[in-house]
Design goal:
The protein has helices spanning 2-7, 21-32, 34-41, 67-71, 89-98, 108-119, 137-143, 158-168, 173-182, 191-194, 197-211, 230-238, 301-316, 322-330, and strands at 12-17, 45-51, 78-81, 102-105, 124-125, 149-155, 221-222, 241-251, 257-267, 279-286, 290-297, 338-339. With 351 residues, the chain is an alpha/beta fold. The longest helix is centred in the C-terminal third of the chain and has 16 residues, at 301-316. Bound molecules: L-homoserine. L-homoserine binds at residues 132, 157-159, 185-187, 193, 198, 298-299.
Length: 351
C-alpha cells in the first residue's frame, strides 16, 4: 500500500453540478471505490463541492455552493455536469470551460446542440452522453478515428426500450413509464424519451463522431412511441417481429447523410430484437474494421456513473479528449442536410 501511495500524483479535484440519480451514484463510487479509482488514475479523485438548485436540508458528501463559487474555486481541476437539459447546464459548462476547467458531462442535449462551439473553449468529455456504460464516444473518435464509418443502426434509449418490453408483456403505458422513472432511467421530462428527442440527440452525437460532419439534432426526423398501441406490439409478435425504437444513420459515398429515429419492426431472430430492458446496442459498419456491435446498459444511475468515471480517470491522467477535439474541429462547418432514412430501411417502419 505504501509503495502504491508513493506512486500517486497530487489529487485531481472536481466539483459537481447536480446530485440526482447519476450524481448520487457517482458520489458513492468516488467514496466506495476510491482506491481502485486512484489506482486507475494514478492519483486520488476528490469531490470538493456540489451545486444543486435546492440544497436546503440535503445531505451530501461535499459542501454545497453556488455555481459562481464553484467555478471560481482555484483548487479545482474539473467539473462534472449532471444537471441535464439545455439551461442552466449549457451556461455552467460554458463558464467552466472559459475559466480553464475541464468539463465532463452526461448531457446529450447540450453536446448535440452546442458541443462543437463548447469544445472550442476547452477540454470537453462526454462519454456518458450516449448509451451510458457502452464505451462508444471515445471508441468512435479515437479507436476508430482512422476508419470510415458507413452506417449506425442502434437502440439508444433505455426508457422506451424498457417500456416497449413491459407493454408487450401486458403493462399499461403509464405503468411502464412509472417503472422506468422509478429505476432512474427516464429523463426529468419523459417526453424527451417517449417523443424520441433523447435518442435523436444521441444519434446526432454519434453521427458527428462517425461521419465527421456537423449534425443538428433538430434535422433528424423523429417518431416516438406515444402512439403505439399494445395490440400493435402483440400483432407484430404474432408475425415474428419485435417493435424497437431504432436510431439509424448512413453516410453515402457523396457524403450525404440519411438518419432518423422511429419504431421499426425487427425480425425476432435478429440480435437487435433481443436487446431487452434498459440495454442499448450500436451496430457499426466500418470500411476497414468491418461490422462491430457494442451492447450494454444504456441507462440507469450506475451505468451512467461508470461512463462519467471513465472520463474522469482519462482527465486525471491528462489523456487526450479525442471526442471533444473532433467536435471542436466541426465547429466551422455548416450543419449537414439530413434526409430521413424512410419507412423501409434498416427495418420496416412500425407506424
Ligand atoms: N433517459 C435516457 C434513456 C437516460 O432512457 O436512455 C440515458 O441517457
Amino acid at each position: 500500500m505504501l509503495a502504491f501511495r508513493k506512486m500517486l500524483r497530487a489529487p485531481y479535484r472536481i466539483g459537481m453540478f447536480g446530485l440526482g440519480h447519476v450524481g448520487g451514484a457517482l458520489a458513492r463510487r468516488l467514496v466506495d471505490d476510491a482506491d481502485a479509482i486512484a489506482r486507475a488514475a494514478n492519483r486520488p479523485i476528490l469531490l470538493e463541492a456540489i451545486v444543486v438548485a435546492r440544497p436546503q436540508g440535503r445531505v451530501a458528501p461535499a459542501p454545497f455552493m453556488t455555481a459562481e463559487e464553484l467555478i471560481a474555486r482555484p483548487s479545482l481541476d474539473a467539473v462534472v455536469e449532471l444537471v441535464g437539459g439545455l439551461e442552466p447546464a449549457h451556461t455552467y459548462i460554458k463558464n467552466a470551460l472559459s475559466a480553464g476547467l475541464e468539463v465532463i458531462t452526461a448531457n446529450k442535449q447540450v453536446v448535440a446542440t452546442q458541443g462543437p462551439a463548447l469544445a472550442r473553449l476547452g477540454r470537453l468529455r462526454f462519454e456518458a452522453s450516449v448509451a451510458s456504460a457502452i464505451p462508444i464516444v471515445e471508441t468512435l473518435a479515437d479507436t476508430l478515428g482512422s476508419d470510415r464509418i458507413r452506417s449506425i443502426i442502434s437502440i439508444l434509449n433505455g426508457t422506451t426500450n424498457s417500456m416497449l418490453g413491459a407493454i408487450a408483456g401486458g403493462a399499461s403505458y403509464a405503468e411502464a413509464l412509472a417503472d422506468a422513472q422509478r429505476r432512474g432511467l427516464a429523463e426529468a421530462d419523459p417526453s424527451a424519451d417517449v417523443d424520441a428527442h433523447d435518442p435523436a440527440a444521441k444519434l446526432a452525437i454519434l453521427s458527428m463522431l462517425a461521419f465527421r460532419r456537423r449534425v443538428d439534432p433538430s434535422h433528424i426526423e423523429r417518431v416516438g412511441i406515444r402512439s403505439l398501441e399494445p395490440a400493435q406490439l402483440a400483432a407484430a409478435r404474432q408475425r415474428g417481429f419485435v417493435i424497437k425504437l431504432i436510431a439509424a444513420a448512413t453516410m453515402h459515398d457523396d457524403a450525404s447523410i440519411e438518419a432518423d429515429v422511429r419504431p421499426r419492426l425487427v425480425p425476432d431472430d435478429a440480435a437487435m430484437a433481443r436487446v431487452e430492458g434498459a440495454m442499448n446496442a450500436i451496430a457499426l459498419d466500418a470500411q476497414y474494421a468491418g461490422s462491430l456491435v457494442l451492447q450494454g446498459p444504456g441507462a440507469g444511475p450506475d451505468a451512467a456513473a461508470s461512463a462519467v468515471l471513465a472520463d474522469l480517470v482519462r482527465a486525471a491522467k491528462d489523456a487526450p479528449a479525442s471526442a471533444g477535439s473532433l467536435l471542436a474541429s466541426l465547429a466551422p462547418q455548416p450543419a449537414a442536410t439530413v434526409a430521413p432514412l424512410g419507412p423501409k430501411n434498416p427495418y420496416p417502419a412500425a407506424s
